[in-house]
Request: fold
Amino acid sequence: MDLRPVTDPLRSFLYVAGGWACLGLAMIGAVLPLLPTTPFLLLASWCFYRGSPRIHAWLHRSQWFGPTLDDWHHYHGIRRSLKHRAIVMVVAVVAISLFYSSLPWWLRYVVLGLVGVGLYTIWTVPTLPDDAPKPPRTLAE
Reply:
């Protein structure tokens, strides 16, 4: 599989559009517990790499997403504090949502099952200690 940036303008546009869509989903996933943030962020990075190296570099330099992407790129994991924060947020938001919702009992179990899959995914991603050295910035500013 060829993983270099594309040169065809139409394919480049499609990759960039997909990258923005994935980045939007990642941002929504930062506040909604059923939508994962990190997979969409990684997919956005890949799409931007293929479609626009300039936008890819911008994403990796960003204050919010850059450190997570650098950790994944260099260590293939996420920091312990980020993982724990994600788990606590998912559990808190889902618990509050289920407490105040009027969903039928069976739909509550469906939600709990989906949340369980999400929590399992978060838990099984390799964990970096919080004091792990910050990876070097791989993209020039």
